[in-house]
Amino acid sequence: MLQFRRIILSGVSALTLALPAFAGKLAIVIDDFGYRPQTENQVIALPQAVSVAVLPNAPHAREMATKAHNAGHEVLIHLPMAPLSKQPLEKDTLRPEMSSAEIERIIRDAVNKVPNAVGMNNHMGSAMTSSLFGMQKVMQVLDHYNLYFLDSMTIGNSQSLRAASGTSVKVIKRKVFLDDTQNEADIRYQFNRAIALARRNGSAIAIGHPHPATVRVLQQMVYNLPPDITLVRPSSLLNEPQVDTSTPGQTAPTAPGKPATAPRNPFRGVKVCRPEQPLQPVYASRFFETVGESIARSNLVNYFRNQWQGWEQSRKS
Length: 317
Ligand SMILES: [Zn+2]
What we know:
CATH topology of the largest domain: TIM Barrel
Order of helices and strands: HEHEHEHEHHEHEEHEHEHHH
Bound molecules: zinc ion
Largest sheet: 9 strands, parallel
């Protein structure tokens, strides 16, 4: 019996020694670019792996996209998409009932205004991204332009992953919003959450905005990352496993102005992207924490954890 325990323990130590191979990859995207050149220039001065997403119809869109690209940053188009709640919308905000031709025109225009973009993420968009019909039209166009889609996950029931099936569009998802408040302690807390998730799942994507408080936190924290965390571009995460958390019963196209489901936690007139509906908690995490830390980081266990999350979320939704 003692010998058996010894064998198990040495197996666990071997796995622990192998840990650096599972270091966490962290991607940071600062979106809503194009309105605040002064703060945005400070973002561009950060390490090249910090990426930026530009609103195509913002006054400084082209200028900031070009500057960011020339400084070595990955550039995304930050495309406005219709939210479920009523609020002022950007020009050319995508709506589910728009025709394919209209969506194509808007995306073509955005590609022209945000040079060198390699991906796209949604600005707001709970009504649009929860419409399978709407997102299928978006994915057809993104396929044509060879752009990946970073889902800002402003609603848990986003259909982006499902809508991309049958196209070559890669979909990745935000895990953490850095700055729901502009309090530096809160932003540091969120940044550390992103680090913990990257370590636990192998990778994580955090989205922030060009606010002075966010920039100050990034200026401290991106230069002091733990040794097992690597800052990466979102495009280096396109082949990471993704979990589809959407609910099949809620994918019918919505009539104009009449969303199929009201958000449980509606937006209250804030312009930046924030979750409009809280994401489901990870029910399986406590179970998996009881498995040895090192074993829990293996790809196989991550796979089952991801599957488990998917099952839990579809059951609870
Ligand atoms: Zn936004």
